[in-house]
Amino acid sequence: MTHEILADQVDYYRCRAGEYDVTAYGDVAAFRARIARLVAIMRPAGRVLEMACGTGLWTEALAGWADTVVAIDAAPEMVATARGRVRSGNVRFEVADVFSWTTEHRFDVIFFAAWLSHVPMSRLEQFWQMLRRPLAEGGRVLFVDEPIDVREKEAYVPGMDEIVERRLNDGRAFRVVKNFIDPEAFRARLLELGWACEIRRDGIDLVYGEARLAS
Ligand SMILES: C[S@@+](CC[C@H](N)C(=O)[O-])C[C@H]1O[C@@H](n2cnc3c(N)ncnc32)[C@H](O)[C@@H]1O
To answer: Measured in angstroms, how far is the CA atom of residue 213 from the centroid of ligand 1?
Structure first.
């Protein structure tokens, strides 16, 4: 079941790529300014890995702070849009699945926006375990996502806690995982998994966090 949903999730974003920026962010120029502000707070310096980069809106801001950015996403259509948008010479894009991608490189920062909430609960431990290897000593995991407060925006499939139905502009329906972030509960869960984490709010609709391996 999880495997099917994860595949559906990639299909959904492949098909949504052309309409993503407007349907996700509405006023893209205004959201870009918000991205720039949040990234400036998080200060992603050094070697940065961005997971699930989408259309590259966050990537372009990361590129301004980082020495280098490797940005991966499973949807080739998303990566094509991101490549067209982000021309900085310090960014390299790759089409890759977060759950199977491996690298020999180490990163000072691993960043993801609007990705954590798409990780099924059954894969959460594996996902955070997987982040340990590419993270340089003393490195940080930075994330931005949506808080539990805005849960009502989604149409949960009856009887399924973490699966929602999404529709594209043309009416096609897909099922994706959506686990909104409850900051306190999530912080406690990460601590169980060996990560010390701080989560802050930005407005009512976003949270951003920084996690480090607990000593
Ligand atoms: C909500 S979008 C976020 C995009 C971008 N980070 C942003 O905040 O605008 C989720 C992204 O996850 C990507 N994605 C979905 N499943 C993935 C997987 N298994 N591996 C890598 N990327 C995946 C999708 O293609 C999509 O670009």
So the answer is: 24
